[in-house]
Amino acid sequence: MSHPLRIGLLGGSFNPAHGGHRRISLFAKAALDLDEVWWLVSPGNPLKPKVGMAPLPVRMASAARQARRAPIRVTAIERQLGTRYTVDTLRALDRRYPKRKFVWLMGSDNLAQFHLWRDWRGIAREMPIAVIARPGYDGAALASPAMAWLRRYRVPPASFANGGEWSAPALVILRFDPDERSATALRRADPDWAMRHTGVSVRDQVTHRLVSPPASLQGGLRGA
Q1: Long-range pairs for 151-156 at CB < 8 Å and ≥24 separation?
Q2: Does the pLDDT at position 4 exceed 50?
Q3: Which residue has the higher pLDDT, 183 or 125?
Q4: CB 3.0-4.6 Å disulfide test: which of 7, 139, 172, 222 passes with 130?
């Protein structure tokens, strides 16, 4: 009998998406024996400033380009669900897709400030969490208040592989050659990156709804 689809969820602004997102997604897929990874492109991150944030369709187009020919689905499902916080999104996804098994993927930079997220313990109780090492953040992540609570639930990656049973809370630490690419550095090197995605129609790869592009960027994002 076939097992339920095993899905890794990687949330973020993807402002823009880059090869580092793709690389860690494929690494996590292999390490955890996932069927695919969903990129949850956030309509708006409460912990990030809005200045310099490209419109959602532009970020979707950037993510779709990076995810081509890979077992990665790009989605803005949070907009359809009407959720703003991760804990609400994950609960809604579990309700909507009861025959899928989800694991939340995040970088160690997010673990370092995970205790600032809305109901972060609720997130941990909703589904397993896999943390991917990121240069410069491992020390802060290991010393974080969230890690102090999650440490008791740490399990080896092998427990997720080969169709094993998942439960939560569970924490898996994945280590691989760190990827130093970041959206911040890419925006600095190419401040007009969003203009190349203006007017591109993107279809949500999970809900299959069309994400309409903005009419214009009103002079670009640097002064938005």
Answers
A1: 153/124
A2: yes
A3: 125
A4: 172
Enumerate the H helices of the chain as residue ranges: 19-32, 56-66, 77-81, 86-96, 108-112, 120-126, 138-142, 145-150, 183-189
Residue 180: closest CA among 140, 133, 120, 223: 133
Name the phi and psi angles at 159, rounded to 5: -70, -15
Report the pLDDT value the prediction gives residue 14, as an integer from 0 to 100. 94
Q: Find, among 144, 201, 202, 200, the residue nearest to 171 by Cα.
A: 144
In a 13 Å sphere around the CA of 223, the CA atoms on its Cβ side amount to 3
**Residue 61 corresponds to which amino acid?**
A
CB atoms within 10 A of CB 218: 10
Of residues 46 and 86, more confidently modeled: 86
pLDDT at 189 over 90: no
Minimal CA–CA distance to 108: which of 174, 162, 163?
Answer: 174
Task: Identify whether 16 is preceded by a cis peptide bond (ω within 30 of 0).
Answer: yes
The answer to whether residues 4 and 160 touch, using CB atoms and an 8 Å cutoff, is no
Cα–Cα separations (whole angstroms), residue 117 to 123, 124, 132, 145, 216: 9, 11, 18, 12, 33
